[in-house]
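With this grant's support, we have settled on a layout for protein records. An illustrative entry appears below exactly as we store it:
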Amino acid sequence: MKDKKISDVLLTFLLQVIVYLVVSIPFKVMEVIPGFTDIRPVTLLGPIYAVFFGPQGCLAFAAGNLITDIVSDSLRWSCIAGFIANFGGPYLIYLYWTRISKESFSLRTGKNILKHIAVVIITAVITSAIITPAVALVYPDVDAALFAVMVVLNTAAFPIVLGIPLIFLMQEELGFEPHK
């Protein structure tokens, strides 16, 4: 019985990483700062993985980002900070909805949608605050201000504009339950 559960967890993890790669790799050509940042619609998956899959989803999100960096020849020393931030950002969303919020996750009310948007924006700023100094320290020729803005925009805009409708679909139409 325990082996089946472990295999289910591993299969789900692998599927999440594969979905991440399928969404991220085609957009690697839309670089803003070559080798460092690009247009990243894949960030819409961060809150989804956090809310519906918990820590495992957060780890899959970070692993997917690292694998994308490797296969797109974007692997840099700053990817260590990227891995930490791409796990930590979704994990903070998970913590908010499972430990801090007095309500269980649902975007059925305007109040909860606004809370979710606020949490996504806060985690985007934290993500940028983790990655930007690592990039600026190791690669001083990179425009740190532009990099920081791109991280915040990518990590907030796509989860809000594309992620919220997908969360509605997953929860309301497909019956996904939030991770507890």
Q: What stands out?
A: Strands lie at 31-33, 37-38. The domain at 2-173 is CATH 1.10.1760.20 (Arp2/3 complex 21 kDa subunit ARPC3).
